[in-house]
Amino acid sequence: MKTWRELEDIQPKVMKMIENSLNKGRVSHAYLFEGGRGTGKKDVSFQMAKSLFCTNRDGAKPCSTCSNCRRIESQNHPDVHFISPEGQSIKKEQIQYLQAEFQRTGVESRKKLYIIEHVNKMTPNAANSLLKFLEEPHADTYAILLTEQVHQLLDTIVSRCQVLSFQPLTPQVLVDTLVEHSVSPSTAQLLSHLTNSLEEALQLNEDEWFGLAGKLVIKLNETLVTRPEQALFFIQEQWISHFKDKEQYEKGLHLLLLLYRDLVQLQADNEQTIAFIGYREQLKKQALQTTQRKSVQRLEAVLKAKQKLSSNMNPQLLIEELVLELQEG
Ligand SMILES: [Zn+2]
């Protein structure tokens, strides 16, 4: 679990708002944390829970060592309930259980808190039960609802909560988080150029198809540089059997676009932001052998191909046409 301090780096606005509410004693009875996976919603909800129950708080920050803090962290506190989908959904019984628990007075303190993860996955019955619960707030009852899909929630639920929007991860935070998830630094860097969603980045990292797609894009570039007359043959022999539908072509063209963008960046002496770090040395050599104008032309050719792809041009025809254009450079 991320510390308060780490969360301040990832979600400065959210943490500031929570800190102010805690310091001023103006904590809302219901919060809705919305934002993509990996943006820290669950960690923030637990830090906030600890702050609400901590017996040794420093300003708004929980001590993390008192018995309340430790029991919340290990999900063992009798007055703090954490609910997540059982199977595909959150069921009415789960909300009813919560209500029953809360009707009794707090076991240890009078204060009670529940956190519901993936709250958009409630069945309609569960959503109605929760709505009733939110409509009749008890003085010392707090709710934190977490979701990646705020538009799937009933407006009546959203309107009863203070909504805190979690920002997408910055490329650097995404890279660091991916490396924490055992992704190699060079792959993490490439993925951070393709998405700002941790979930999508982790999926791509596990995806064998994607791994090979990246290698084929590099190989296509090498063929174009060293044996341009073989490039069409390469497309027919290796590319077409791997890239099958429009979506896959989109990914392939996106990777090729990043590669030419790297080349332009290297020619402008801007090494910091390149995507293909693992391929940097070869790209540097290539950058010296061609002009910036030509690299930009190639970049534009790939962009144009991407547009044609979205207007439903046959992908195979499209890549062949593109390769002919890149050959000329
Ligand atoms: Zn504490």
UniProtKB/TrEMBL annotation:
Gene3D superfamilies: P-loop containing nucleotide triphosphate hydrolases (3.40.50.300). It comes from the Bacteria. InterPro entries: DNA_pol_HolB, DNA_Rep/Repair_Clamp_Loader, P-loop_NTPase. This is DNA polymerase-3 subunit delta. It comes from Priestia endophytica DSM 13796. The lineage of its organism: Bacteria, Bacillati, Bacillota, Bacilli, Bacillales.
